[in-house]
Amino acid sequence: MANQPNYQTGLIFRFLFKREVVKLLVWIVPIVAMTVTIALAFNGLYETQEERQALAETMENPAMKALVGQGYGLDNYTDGAMLAHQMLLMTAVVVAIMSMLLIVRLTRADEEDGQLEMLRALPMGRLAQTNAALFVLVITNIVLMLITAISLTALGMDSIDWAGSLLYGSVLGTTGLFFGAITLLAAQLSDNTRGTMMLGYLVLGLSYMIRSIGDSGNELLSWFSPLGILLGSEVYVNNYWWPILVIVLLAIIIIALALYLQQIRDVGAGLLPQRSGRKAASPMLQSQIGLALRLLRTSLIAWIIGMMLIGISYGSVLGDLEAFLGESEAIMEIIGASGDMSITEQFISVLLKIMAIFSTIPALVVFVRLKSEEKKGRLEHLLAKPVSRKKILGTYLGLSFLTSIVMMLAGIIALAGIGVTVMDVDISFNTLVEAQLVYLPAVWILIGFAAALYGWCYKWSRFIWLYLLFSFLTVYLGDLLDLPAFILGLSPYYHIPELPTDQLSWVVMVVATGMALLLSFLGFLGFQRRDIET
Amino acid sequence: MKVLEVKQLTKTFGKVQALDGVDLAVNKGEVYGFIGPNGAGKSTTIRILLGLLKPTSGFARLFGKDAWEDAVAIHKRIAYVPGDVNLWPNLTGGEVIDLFLKMRGVRVDQSRKARLMEQFDFDPTKKCRTYSKGNRQKVALIAAFAADADLYILDEPTSGLDPLMERVFQQCVYEAKKKGSSVLLSSHILSEVERLCDRVAIIRQGEIIESGSLASLRHLTRIQLTIATKEVVPDLDSQPGVHDFKIENQHYVFQVDADQLDEMVRYVSQYGVVNLESAPPTLEDLFMRHYQGSTSGGGGQ
Ligand SMILES: Nc1ncnc2c1ncn2[C@@H]1O[C@H](COP(=O)(O)OP(=O)(O)OP(=O)(O)O)[C@@H](O)[C@H]1O
Ligand SMILES: [Mg+2]
Predict the structure, then answer these.
(1) What is this model's ipTM?
(2) In-domain check, residue B13
(3) Are B218 and B286 in contact (CB under 8 A)?
(4) Which of A51, A124, A237, A347 fits A63 for a cystine, CB–CB 3.0-4.6 Å?
């Protein structure tokens, strides 16, 4: 009778589910649609076994392995093997992010905003909301798993059978469950939403990186990453189920720990220790830019470290790539046939593009902070003082531009530094840095776009993330799917010349920078005229 | 019979000692005022009572049950209104009220709910995002008073209400009391506490420094006197128990400690009193003395 930690879980579950169902469909439907579309596209594009085998050859190198995973069944590269190799990891990361956001919304965010306090003062068990959030998580991922499995099977392709498709869906669902569990644990440690998400992303990022270093070189390492273990299920090739079992078990242990911690802690508190702050604002803090920097300090530091780690892991791949090319005569021939561009350079340009997209994320994070300041009603305090809107928007925009430069430098210096030491192709440090920095104007276009959205359609500000995802997909899938140029061209990154192969075109640089400035200017115009939202 | 009992309650947050040996007891059918300066520990005490925070030491019992261990059973019999009501932006006020009532698992008197909404002049069809502070507060108040509870725990429940709504709230408390419910009311609006409460406790820096019925607390305090006499009263300002002495329009204006009043009246009456006005100490006077810091309590303003 005492305690009753689970009391009213059912009611809270129905309440949360109703709240989330639309948002979840907005995630699930595109995920499944993308998977199915790409399976179909592969089927149409690579009709014969020879064509598929040719693709498999280009996949069998450390850079690709770092990016998409080791790849199984490369000697018999069926549609299924191809789908699992090219798409499973990336889709799993998207599902992980969906699940992390879901859990943080339903637990720590409600707690931080004070709704949980209202609920917990009612007859409701200490674990009811957490339990209910977990049920939503599990149901979401099971639904995702089933829909994926059924839709893929329904395509009726030989190599994409029910057994494999069910496992494909299960890998996605299990990833979601695992990272949801991690986030739940993070929510017990940190006492705020941002910190929780950061811990979650940290685990996801490390999982990806460990797997990436492992897959491209030391394969043992991959087994220390949940993503690596899950890819070990060799979907559509050998269909091993044990990785699912292992990860589900791990998830259950993490969940049990999180529930235990939840039950013994105060509402609103986290278990990580808190330092007491300064008595008075440092002179730094007393300026607009100082305040913004202070608010973003932790995440900026985390991102700089993250970018350097990504740079290091990609840089070390370049070495593996060299070694690999040295060994394989056959590949050298293929390279020779593929044109005047060496395969190393080709991969470098893909990696650099991906690095450019990664460094766009923190730059946008900086800018989007302005929106959340507005939404939480804190912008009002500033605007009520003699601070103009222009100055506030300018501060965040300026910081965002600056962040893009810093992040890109952090990543490329790490990549090039490692790269030139492990690689003996004659690409210099400077060439690499230059080849990376030319992407800055493309990043700036996204920042400008974010500013314009913020100024004119505040409610749609989040659209910028979709645009970034789209740009990423065009890089990731553009070649594989043979996407037409007009679609690829929608991404600003597409127009940037790929150094060192291409010539640096100042026209493109100037035009792109001009567009970014124009979009930013539009943002100022809109922001001057619209209402401040709450 | 004690509905709520708190003994030697302490709570520390890291190095901050928020509560330092708090004792409280609320009887059945009693409205109990809980007052004290900002940061004194009122909300912390209340959140321990609700089982939201775990006490560092001491105990908090409601209906004879432990506040942390038996939270669910206790919450079936209470209603809580915080000072800062945070709601789900996408739900309407009406939906939230229904959710809260459903969770309390009590029988809801629909006509009473409708009457409350009307009295509070509340539109339940708007999304919570669009409510003003006072209107968000009304959501919690309506959900609390639309069904009977044995104990109402109210933490600055009227901090956003206009005076008209404040009156509706006081009516709700009266009615609850009439039905035999108990109320724990923390508030900075002293006139409200004075009007509603049978007993009060004053907390400062995590310690209860005074508690009892208003009448008995008044006893401890000073009375404001304005006196005019035929003859000059010698040394009036240095008589025992006299504070804040001044002379305005030939009237002596000062405060006197309640237990020195008798002496004082005797003394001045020797000089031919022509006018004497006395004002009872307000809770505010009482409060000012305690709020304004000095530990002896005798230092005055
Ligand atoms: N989570 C927390 N972490 C650290 N200190 C806290 C925490 N919650 C409260 N405190 C501290 O405990 C003390 C008591 O706070 P409490 O909120 O109970 O005050 P209060 O009496 O309700 O004040 P107010 O009248 O302003 O509402 C304060 O010094 C406060 O800073
Ligand atoms: Mg308080």
Answers:
(1) 0.81
(2) yes
(3) yes
(4) A347
